[in-house]
C-alpha cells in the first residue's frame, strides 16, 4: 500500500511538471507558427516562465463573485484537477502494473465522471455565459465519449482483454495503427474534441461566451482548471501512444517509443490549434452522430467478426 501511494504521488508530481512545461511549449510553438517570439524575458530563453505564472496565479487575491453558490463553485476546480490526476494512476507506475485487468474500466469511469466538474463550474457560477459554456462542454464530451469508448473497445477486442498491459504486449509484433488505421484517425479527432481544444473549443469561445465555463474564476480557481485541462491533454496523448503505437521487445525500447509518440501527439494539439479556425457547433455534432458513430459501429462489427473467425481457426 505504501509503495502504491509513493508511486501515485510521483506520477502526480511528474504530471504537474509536464503540464507546466507543456504550456511553455505551446506558447513557444504558437509564437513560431505566427512568426513572432514567444515568452523569453524570464530567465534563460523564458524557461522559468511557467513557474513565474504559477506563482503569480497562486499569490493573487481571490475575489468572490456576488451571485455564485460559493461552496460548490469553490470545490469544482479541485474536483476537476483530482479527476485529472486520478487518470494518471494508469501511467507506467507500480499501481498500473498491479491493477490487474481493470485499468481501462478506471479510464472510462473517471473520464465519464469528470464531466460533472465542468458542468458544476458553469452552473454554480450563476452566469449565463458560464452556463452556456458548460452546457456546450457537457454535450460535446458526452457525444464524443461514445465514439471514444467504441474505438477503445475495438482495440481491446483484438487483445481479448481490458488490461492496458496486455494491449502493450499484443503490439510487440504489430502496432494496432496498421490494423485499425481508420479508427486511429477518428480517435485523434475525438481526442481533440473530448479535451475541448481548438478547433473544437466551444466551451471557451471568446468571441461568443467571453471565456466560457470558467469566466467567473480567477487566481487559484482558474489555475486549477487550467492545470486540469492540460493534464487531460497529456494523458490523452499518452493513451493514444499506448493504444496504437505501444509495444517493444525491451522495456527500454517500449519506454522510448511511448515517450516519443506521447510528445508527438502533444505537439499535434498545438499544431492543430495554430492551423485551423473554430468549427461550427452544429457541424461538430453532426460529425459524431451522423458520420463517426455509424463508421465506428461498422468497424467494430467487422473487428468482432474477425476476432471470432480467428478463434475458430
TrEMBL record:
Catalytic activity: a ubiquinone + NADH + 5 H(+)(in) = a ubiquinol + NAD(+) + 4 H(+)(out)
Superkingdom in the source lineage: Eukaryota
Localization per record: Membrane; Mitochondrion inner membrane
Any one Gene Ontology molecular-function term assigned to this protein's record: NADH dehydrogenase activity
Main enzyme class: translocase
Membrane topology: Multi-pass membrane protein
Cellular component terms per the entry's GO annotation: mitochondrial inner membrane
Leader peptide range in chain numbering: none
Membrane spanning residue stretches: 5-25, 70-91, 103-124, 144-165, 172-193, 219-245, 252-271, 291-311
Any one Gene Ontology BP term: aerobic respiration
Alphabetic keyword roster: Membrane, Mitochondrion, NAD, Transmembrane, Transmembrane helix, Ubiquinone
Enzyme Commission number: 7.1.1.2
Alphabetical list of HAMAP family matching this protein: NDH1_NuoH
PANTHER family reported for this sequence: NADH DEHYDROGENASE SUBUNIT 1, NADH-UBIQUINONE OXIDOREDUCTASE CHAIN 1
Protein family per UniProt: Belongs to the complex I subunit 1 family.
Protein name: NADH-ubiquinone oxidoreductase chain 1
Amino acid at each position: 500500500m505504501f509503495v502504491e501511494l509513493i508511486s501515485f504521488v510521483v506520477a502526480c508530481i511528474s504530471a504537474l511538471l509536464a503540464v507546466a512545461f507543456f504550456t511553455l511549449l505551446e506558447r513557444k510553438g504558437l509564437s513560431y507558427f505566427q512568426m513572432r517570439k514567444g515568452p523569453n524575458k524570464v530567465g534563460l530563453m523564458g524557461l522559468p516562465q511557467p513557474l513565474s505564472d504559477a506563482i503569480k496565479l497562486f499569490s493573487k487575491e481571490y475575489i468572490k463573485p456576488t451571485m455564485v453558490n460559493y461552496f460548490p463553485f469553490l470545490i469544482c476546480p479541485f474536483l476537476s484537477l483530482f479527476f485529472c490526476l486520478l487518470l494518471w494512476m494508469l501511467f507506467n507506475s507500480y499501481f498500473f502494473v498491479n491493477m490487474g485487468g481493470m485499468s481501462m474500466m478506471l479510464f472510462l469511469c473517471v473520464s465519464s465522471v469528470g464531466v460533472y466538474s465542468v458542468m458544476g463550474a458553469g452552473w454554480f457560477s450563476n452566469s449565463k455565459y458560464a452556463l452556456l459554456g458548460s452546457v456546450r462542454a457537457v454535450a460535446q464530451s458526452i457525444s464524443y465519449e461514445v465514439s471514444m469508448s467504441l474505438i477503445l473497445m475495438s482495440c481491446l477486442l483484438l487483445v481479448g482483454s481490458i488490461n492496458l498491459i496486455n494491449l502493450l504486449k499484443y503490439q510487440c509484433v504489430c502496432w494496432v495503427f496498421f490494423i485499425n488505421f481508420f479508427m486511429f484517425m477518428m480517435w485523434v479527432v475525438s481526442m481533440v474534441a473530448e479535451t475541448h481544444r481548438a478547433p473544437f473549443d466551444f466551451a471557451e469561445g471568446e468571441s461568443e461566451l467571453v471565456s466560457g465555463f470558467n469566466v467567473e474564476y480567477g487566481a487559484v480557481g482558474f489555475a486549477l482548471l487550467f492545470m486540469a485541462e492540460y493534464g487531460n491533454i497529456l494523458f490523452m496523448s499518452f493513451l493514444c501512444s499506448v493504444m496504437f503505437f505501444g509495444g517493444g521487445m525491451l522495456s527500454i525500447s517500449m519506454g522510448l517509443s511511448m515517450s516519443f509518440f506521447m510528445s508527438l501527439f502533444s505537439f499535434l494539439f498545438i499544431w492543430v490549434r495554430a492551423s485551423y479556425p473554430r468549427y461550427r457547433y452544429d457541424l461538430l455534432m453532426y460529425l459524431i452522430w451522423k458520420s463517426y458513430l455509424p463508421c465506428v459501429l461498422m468497424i467494430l462489427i467487422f473487428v468482432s467478426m474477425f476476432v471470432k473467425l480467428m478463434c475458430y481457426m
